[in-house]
């Protein structure tokens, strides 16, 4: 990977739907050369894919609240088993093994307070969570 590839990646981060013609013009290449470089970056795994970021307020198909749940596991719970089970629970989108007072922080999407209550109950009864602390995201910014 060279400086031109890094420049291409910067442009794609800003606008992944940019045409190869416009991408080439921004980085000083022809459309074909820009396309070849993007295909190579995809083939070699530098670019793993493209995604769409949707404003949660505009997406009626997604639940309404994003929550972050700090969890401390019971001593008898295996962390690999916990991760696998937690990721199968409806709404849990990420688990992160962390340092500090808690063992994990989970990111989840729930419909409302009742959905959060149901998720917390399942974490405690099915996944071996001994203690939890939940925060509701008021606003999420991403790049």
Automatic annotation (TrEMBL):
<dbReference type="InterPro" id="IPR036390">
    <property type="entry name" value="WH_DNA-bd_sf"/>
</dbReference>
<dbReference type="InterPro" id="IPR036388">
    <property type="entry name" value="WH-like_DNA-bd_sf"/>
</dbReference>
<dbReference type="InterPro" id="IPR019885">
    <property type="entry name" value="Tscrpt_reg_HTH_AsnC-type_CS"/>
</dbReference>
<keyword id="KW-0805">Transcription regulation</keyword>
<dbReference type="InterPro" id="IPR011008">
    <property type="entry name" value="Dimeric_a/b-barrel"/>
</dbReference>
<dbReference type="Pfam" id="PF13404">
    <property type="entry name" value="HTH_AsnC-type"/>
</dbReference>
<feature type="domain" description="HTH asnC-type">
    <location>
        <begin position="1"/>
        <end position="66"/>
    </location>
</feature>
<dbReference type="InterPro" id="IPR019888">
    <property type="entry name" value="Tscrpt_reg_AsnC-like"/>
</dbReference>
<dbReference type="Pfam" id="PF01037">
    <property type="entry name" value="AsnC_trans_reg"/>
</dbReference>
<dbReference type="InterPro" id="IPR019887">
    <property type="entry name" value="Tscrpt_reg_AsnC/Lrp_C"/>
</dbReference>
<keyword id="KW-0804">Transcription</keyword>
<protein>
    <submittedName>
        <fullName>Lrp/AsnC family transcriptional regulator</fullName>
    </submittedName>
</protein>
<dbReference type="InterPro" id="IPR000485">
    <property type="entry name" value="AsnC-type_HTH_dom"/>
</dbReference>
<keyword id="KW-0238">DNA-binding</keyword>
